[in-house]
Amino acid sequence: MNSHKEHREEFEKNQQWFIMHFQDIIKKYRDKFVAIWNQKVIETDKDLEILSQNVRKKTKGAKGVYIGFASDKPVEMIL
After folding, report:
1. Domain regions of the chain by residue span
2. Backbone angles phi, psi at 27, to 5 degrees
3. What is the value of pTM for the model shown?
4. Of 6, 10, 32, 70, which is the most exposed, with the fewest CB atoms less than 10 Å away?
5. pLDDT of residue 62
6. pLDDT for 66 beyond 60
């Protein structure tokens, strides 16, 4: 299996975990960005840039981390 496919599969697992646990996540981390790795919350912050920096340090640049936003309101992002 190539590493791109492995990273995509890990990302999708983490994304599904976020969706499945969304109600618990929103109770604890409302209005914060939430990083999921290995199907668990590893970092949260209101500032996406700070969160990203902390996640890179914590995971040593590992691929497949999913970042979602814990809000019950629609979120629009321009990337």
Report:
1. 3-69
2. -65, -40
3. 0.87
4. 6
5. 82
6. yes
